[in-house]
Amino acid sequence: MEFWLDLNEEQQDLRAWVHGFAETVIRPAASEWDEREETPWPILQEAAKIGLYGFEFLVNTWSDTSGLSLPVANEELFWGDGGIGMAISGTSLAVAAIYGSGTPDQLVEWVPQCFGDAADPKVAAFCSTEPEAGSDVASMRSRAVYDEASDEWVLNGQKAYATNGGIANVHVVTASVDPSLGSRGQAAFVVPPGTKGLAATRKLKKLGLRASHTADVFLDDVRIPGSCLLGGKEALDRRLARAREKQNTPADRTKRSGQAAMRTFELSRPAVGAQALGIARAAYEYALEYAKTRVQFGRPIIENQAIAFALADMRTEIDAARLLVWRAAWMGRNERPFAAGEGSMSKLKAGEVAVAVTEKAVQILGGAGYLRDHPVERMYRDAKIYTIFEGTSEIQRLVIARAISGVHIR
Ligand SMILES: Cc1cc2nc3c(=O)[nH]c(=O)nc-3n(C[C@H](O)[C@H](O)[C@H](O)COP(=O)(O)OP(=O)(O)OC[C@H]3O[C@@H](n4cnc5c(N)ncnc54)[C@H](O)[C@@H]3O)c2cc1C
């Protein structure tokens, strides 16, 4: 499909619809849920009722062959509020893992359980990061051992910073089946609701995104049916055999990160970049209006070039980041190779722009910007995570640097 910057009618309708929800339902509640530091279940329910929270919504956005629907929707959702946006979007991490690694039967069985329904919405968690395995995913210590007698997998380990950890109906957990193979020896498993041995006793207190629940998850002899291995045992055995064959060949050593894994991450990054973009745009718009009305030295502060130029830079950076996000989303959907790490570029730029723009917005509001009376304080806190999760800015640069140089930069 050709790349086209004019949104079509459907995309414009989608944008207006999500924007309307963000404006009328999310924004008025944003400060309250940030203070409460709790998952806003009534808002999830509202979103589920109108079809904004659920698998159907994701399928509809994914089915857009331009790839732009998801970033467009995410930008509006997070324009409403970052914390509530993440409470609504967090489930999609687990769903993406099931979609990416599961069989069609697993998709049908587990995805509805991730979302629940409008009367009783549920959330799901994707648990990959560990205390000793953050950016360095290959050093994962959680283990999955197959018990042939009972056809069960037994999971042990600790997961860190899981969005929705412990409150999720469905947890998707990654673990190492063969640690000698590094990231190629890992697999993803569904832990069904109510499974014994999975616990998340400590909810983490965060700088921002406070309406989104984050917790460490402990796996203590968690026994799950063999069918909970995403993709199935035969596929895993084949993959492990291939990895063992290739292990230690010189070609393998230079391609440690694995092209397939990199492509999966690259595909999800523009959607995350769009979230950052929404927060940045909200802060910019607020600062622009404030600068037009705040009077000092007998004139609105926007009449000073220092303020007006700051706003000009903010808008320019946001628009530049959006172009990178849309380009990467289009490339991913149209199976263009990310030869220069374009997915990473989009997330890197949008995350850094969100941090810079929200900081400038606080500055433009002066003392008022530092108070909780104005939303830019919250946006400033919410934006920071975008240079950290889903791959830190340094890791994005690593991906881009390796892609453009062909050198295995460390
Ligand atoms: C609010 C929140 C929600 C999260 N949600 C989830 C979730 O749902 N599921 C999940 O699995 N994880 C989640 N995470 C974890 C997140 O993805 C990790 O925090 C992130 O990947 C970074 O890992 P780390 O914190 O261990 O940092 P580290 O990897 O320890 O990095 C520390 C610093 O070192 C730098 N660094 C590391 N290696 C290199 C290198 N090779 N070159 C240059 N610099 C390097 C990093 O960029 C960073 O600046 C979440 C985290 C937070 C805070």
UniProtKB/TrEMBL annotation:
<dbReference type="InterPro" id="IPR006089">
    <property type="entry name" value="Acyl-CoA_DH_CS"/>
</dbReference>
<dbReference type="InterPro" id="IPR009075">
    <property type="entry name" value="AcylCo_DH/oxidase_C"/>
</dbReference>
<dbReference type="InterPro" id="IPR037069">
    <property type="entry name" value="AcylCoA_DH/ox_N_sf"/>
</dbReference>
<comment type="similarity">
    <text>Belongs to the acyl-CoA dehydrogenase family.</text>
</comment>
<protein>
    <submittedName>
        <fullName>Acyl-CoA dehydrogenase</fullName>
    </submittedName>
</protein>
<keyword id="KW-0285">Flavoprotein</keyword>
<dbReference type="GO" id="GO:0050660">
    <property type="term" value="F:flavin adenine dinucleotide binding"/>
</dbReference>
<dbReference type="Pfam" id="PF00441">
    <property type="entry name" value="Acyl-CoA_dh_1"/>
</dbReference>
<dbReference type="InterPro" id="IPR013786">
    <property type="entry name" value="AcylCoA_DH/ox_N"/>
</dbReference>
<dbReference type="Pfam" id="PF02771">
    <property type="entry name" value="Acyl-CoA_dh_N"/>
</dbReference>
<dbReference type="Pfam" id="PF02770">
    <property type="entry name" value="Acyl-CoA_dh_M"/>
</dbReference>
<dbReference type="InterPro" id="IPR036250">
    <property type="entry name" value="AcylCo_DH-like_C"/>
</dbReference>
<keyword id="KW-0560">Oxidoreductase</keyword>
<feature type="domain" description="Acyl-CoA oxidase/dehydrogenase middle">
    <location>
        <begin position="125"/>
        <end position="222"/>
    </location>
</feature>
<dbReference type="InterPro" id="IPR009100">
    <property type="entry name" value="AcylCoA_DH/oxidase_NM_dom_sf"/>
</dbReference>
<dbReference type="InterPro" id="IPR006091">
    <property type="entry name" value="Acyl-CoA_Oxase/DH_mid-dom"/>
</dbReference>
<feature type="domain" description="Acyl-CoA dehydrogenase/oxidase C-terminal">
    <location>
        <begin position="260"/>
        <end position="404"/>
    </location>
</feature>
<keyword id="KW-0274">FAD</keyword>
<feature type="domain" description="Acyl-CoA dehydrogenase/oxidase N-terminal">
    <location>
        <begin position="8"/>
        <end position="114"/>
    </location>
</feature>
<dbReference type="GO" id="GO:0003995">
    <property type="term" value="F:acyl-CoA dehydrogenase activity"/>
</dbReference>
<dbReference type="InterPro" id="IPR046373">
    <property type="entry name" value="Acyl-CoA_Oxase/DH_mid-dom_sf"/>
</dbReference>
